[in-house]
Amino acid sequence: MSVAEFVAQRLINEILPFEHTGSHIMNNNPTDAQIIALLHESFQKVDRAYFSDHIGEALARRCALQMYPSGDENIEKYNAQINGFATAAVALLYDNRLFVANLGDSRAIVVKQLNGDLSAIQMSKWHDPTDVEERVRLSNIRAENIEPPTRCFGDFFRKGGYKENPSLKMALCEPVIAEPSVHGSLPVDDSLRFLILINGGMVRSIMEENPQENVNIKIASLVAKEFVQQRSMPVMARAVVDCIAREHQDAFTQNRLPLNCKRRREMVMTFCCIGDFALGASIQSSTLIDEGDTMDEVRVKILIVLNAVVCGFFSHL
């Protein structure tokens, strides 16, 4: 089971009262502050569970092998088992209030329409050394020399095992953390049309093709255009991703991409039409995965319980 699979199974069940008793916070008309606290706690609880429950045995055997080397076992076998990580974006729609929590480079975009004009609102944070707040955090712990993402699930060699990482061993504490950025609440009314969750590969494909492009507006415009033209949501999702892929390919053939860009990344978009949800209509969604030249693993889960909706987007890297 990959990091993404483990997190997808555990995290949403932590957030929604799917199998919880009446004492769970989501069963008791939670306030915004309580929901935000729940999202923070759930992300970190699941990350701890991944290390203890899922790869705990592999970590223990690896530790024993380090202390008592054996010719019968290869430590690289255990390194491979504990090396993965996953980014995530989770959108929680509760009582006509929208919250988004994210780790890493997954992005959430809300599209609103007022008086015929579309606006794109980003409800996520880019956890990367280029972000000012992340750069300050990393500088304070002497971990400036780090590759993105700087927050994720899993990733033993940049968390508990960071002292074994040559580029991070001088850090004062674990450089990579599972503390999410949480945005919300955003009232859900009839002006809110779409919720779009995209992975970092899609963001970077747009930025590589045109560094001056506003990614949020680009995605929102494409979704709005295709939503009108296409007859089904899966076809619409494919049309949006195909458009970005074609533009990236054109930039490649015209030598307009950065020199270090040798391939197109996997692109994933989860699209939810939630404009009518506030009026009692059912939520509609579609997910499109374009593998590009890689085989990264993505898990998307959408659960509806009572008046709450959770859409979880988990990318295993």
From TrEMBL:
Superkingdom in the source lineage: Eukaryota
Protein biosynthesis found in the keyword field: no
GO molecular function: kinase activity; protein serine/threonine phosphatase activity
A UniProt-annotated Pfam family: PP2C
Metal-binding found in the keyword field: no
Keyword list, A-Z: Kinase, Transferase
Domain PPM-type phosphatase positions: 1-243
Entry-linked SUPFAM superfamilies: PP2C-like (SSF81606)
Alphabetized InterPro entries for the sequence: PP2C, PPM-type-like_dom_sf, PPM-type_phosphatase-like_dom
PANTHER family the UniProt entry points to: PROTEIN PHOSPHATASE 2C, TGF-BETA-ACTIVATED KINASE 1 AND MAP3K7-BINDING PROTEIN 1
Protein name: TGF-beta-activated kinase 1 and MAP3K7-binding protein 1
Organism annotation: Ascaris suum
